[in-house]
C-alpha cells in the first residue's frame, strides 16, 4: 500500500510578479513513514499538499512516487487520497455508501463495495454505523468516516490536511491514537500538514518546518527542539528565550555574559536560544548559576509554571524557565539560572541572511 514520495524543488507562484507561495521545497517521505509539514497559517503547507495531490501544477519542481515523475498525471490516477479539515461527506448518502464511494467510482460492484466499506468502518471503530445518514454523525465520527473513505481507496500515499484541527482536545487525542493504530495495521505512507507541534510530535516520524514558503529545517522533532536552525523554527516550537550577542571562538557573549557553546559555531552575530524546560532555577547565590535575575512574570501551564526572569543588561533581556511540577515562585523573587551547555543553541539573527542551508533540511531515507 505504501510508496516512497519525493518532492524536489517544488515552487508555486500564483501570479506573475508575486512572491512564491512555495519556494524550492524539497522533501523525501520514505515508504511507510509519516512526515509532518509544520508551519503557521499562510506558510505554504496546504500548497505542498495540493501540488502533491495534483490539484495544482507546480511552477517548478517535481513530485515523484517510487521514482516515477507524476507531471501531467491527474489527481485520480496518482494513487493518493486526501482527508481535509472538513470531512466533506455526501449528506444524502449513508455512512456505508460514503465509504464505498471510491470503489463504486472504480467500477466495483455495489455489494462488494459495501462489504469493503464495512471492513474499513471497523478499522476506524465505527462498526455498526453503516446505515446511519452522514448528516446524523458527530464531528469526530464524520472525520472517522472521511478517513475510512480515504483508506478504502487503497492509496499509496495518504494526505492529511489538518484533519483534526476542528475537533476538541479529547477527540483530537482519540484520532491521534486511531491513526497510530491504522499505521501499525496498514503501513501507509502519510504526509500530514499541521500548525500544531504537539500533533506533529504525536503522529510523525519526522517533521519539516515551513515558513514563508521556504523549508526551514527537517528531521526528528526532538532534534528540531534541541537544535533549531533558525529563529522561525525556535519560535514555532515554543521557544521564547532569544538573547542577541556575538560568537567568538566557541563562546557566545551577550547580556548573560560569556557562555561556552556545545559545538562549533561560526564567529559573528548570533542569537542564543534555550528551551525553557532545559533551564534550571536555583538560588541567586548558587555558584553553579550562569546568570542571576528577577522573576517578572509567571505563566501557568497545567501542573507546571513558566517563569520569565529579567536579567541585568538591555531592557527586555529575559530568560524563560519551566519549574518542576508543584513548584511556585512569586514575581519579584531574585533567582539564579543554570543554562546547561548542551542546551545552548545559537541561530542567525532574523533577516535574509539567516535563511538556513538547504543541505541541513533534507530527511534522508531510512
In brief, what are we looking at here?
One of its GO terms (cellular component) is ATP-binding cassette (ABC) transporter complex. This protein is α+β, with helices and mostly antiparallel strands and 366 residues long.
Which terms summarize this structure?
366 residues, alpha+beta, Rossmann fold, OB fold (Dihydrolipoamide Acetyltransferase, E2P), 2 domains, 6-stranded mixed sheet, 5-stranded antiparallel sheet, 8 helices, 20 strands, elongated
Total strands? 20
Q: Give the averaged pLDDT, no decimals.
A: 91
Low-confidence stretches: 352-366
User: What's the overall geometry?
Assistant: elongated
Count of discrete alpha- or pi-helical segments spanning 4 or more residues: 8
- Second CATH tier, the architecture of the largest domain: 3-Layer(aba) Sandwich
| Strands side by side in the biggest sheet | 6-7-8-3-9-10
CATH class of the largest domain: Alpha Beta
Alpha-beta classification:
alpha+beta
Radius of gyration (Å): 24 Å
Would you tell me which CATH topology of the largest domain applies? Rossmann fold
Indicate how many domains the architecture comprises.
2
Distance between the termini: 18 Å
**Which strand-content bin applies to the residues?**
25-35%
Name of the CATH superfamily of the largest domain: P-loop containing nucleotide triphosphate hydrolases
The helix/strand series, from N terminus to C terminus, equals EEEHEEEHHHEHEHEEHHEEEEEEEEEE
Share of helix, binned: 10-25%
Pfam family, one: TOBE_2
Keywords: ATP-binding, Nucleotide-binding, Transport
Domain ABC transporter: 5-237
GO molecular function: ABC-type quaternary ammonium compound transporting activity; ATP binding; ATP hydrolysis activity
Amino acid at each position: 500500500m505504501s510508496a516512497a514520495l519525493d518532492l524536489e524543488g517544488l515552487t508555486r507562484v500564483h501570479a506573475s510578479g508575486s512572491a512564491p507561495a512555495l519556494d524550492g521545497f524539497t522533501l523525501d517521505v520514505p515508504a511507510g513513514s509519516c512526515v509532518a509539514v509544520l508551519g503557521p497559517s499562510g506558510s505554504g503547507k496546504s500548497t505542498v499538499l495540493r501540488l502533491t495531490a495534483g490539484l495544482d501544477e507546480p511552477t517548478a519542481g517535481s513530485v515523484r512516487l517510487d521514482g516515477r515523475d507524476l507531471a501531467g498525471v491527474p489527481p485520480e490516477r496518482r494513487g493518493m487520497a486526501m482527508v481535509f479539515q472538513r470531512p466533506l461527506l455526501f449528506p444524502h448518502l449513508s455512512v456505508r455508501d460514503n465509504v464505498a464511494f471510491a470503489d463504486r467510482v472504480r467500477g466495483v460492484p455495489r455489494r462488494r463495495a459495501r462489504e469493503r466499506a464495512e471492513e474499513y468502518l471497523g478499522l476506524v471503530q465505527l462498526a455498526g454505523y453503516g446505515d446511519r445518514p452522514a448528516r446524523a454523525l458527530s464531528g469526530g465520527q464524520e472525520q472517522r468516516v472521511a478517513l475510512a473513505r480515504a483508506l478504502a481507496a487503497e492509496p499509496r500515499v495518504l494526505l492529511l490536511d489538518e484533519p483534526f484541527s476542528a475537533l476538541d482536545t479529547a477527540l483530537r487525542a482519540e484520532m491521534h491514537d486511531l491513526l497510530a493504530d491504522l499505521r501499525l495495521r496498514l503501513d501507509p505512507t502519510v504526509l500530514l500538514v499541521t500548525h500544531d507541534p504537539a500533533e506533529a510530535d504525536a503522529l510523525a516520524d519526522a517533521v519539516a518546518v515551513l515558513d514563508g514558503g521556504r523549508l526551514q529545517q527537517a528531521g526528528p522533532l526532538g532534534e528540531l527542539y534541541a537544535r533549531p536552525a533558525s529563529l522561525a523554527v525556535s519560535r514555532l516550537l515554543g521557544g521564547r528565550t532569544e538573547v542577541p550577542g556575538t560568537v567568538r571562538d566557541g563562546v557566545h557573549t551577550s547580556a548573560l555574559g560569556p557562555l561556552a557553546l556545545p559545538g562549533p559555531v561560526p564567529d559573528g552575530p548570533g542569537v542564543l536560544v534555550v528551551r525553557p524546560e532545559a533551564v534550571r532555577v536555583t538560588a541567586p547565590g548558587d555558584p553553579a548559576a550562569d546568570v542571576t535575575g528577577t522573576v517578572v512574570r509567571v505563566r501557568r501551564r497545567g501542573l507546571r509554571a513558566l517563569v520569565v526572569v529579567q536579567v541585568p543588561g538591555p531592557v527586555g533581556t529575559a530568560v524563560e524557565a519551566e519549574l518542576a511540577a508543584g513548584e511556585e515562585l512569586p514575581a519579584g523573587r531574585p533567582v539564579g539560572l543554570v543554562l546547561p551547555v548542551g542546551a545552548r543553541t545559537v541561530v542567525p539573527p532574523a533577516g535574509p541572511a539567516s535563511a538556513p542551508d538547504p543541505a541541513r533540511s533534507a530527511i534522508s531515507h531510512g
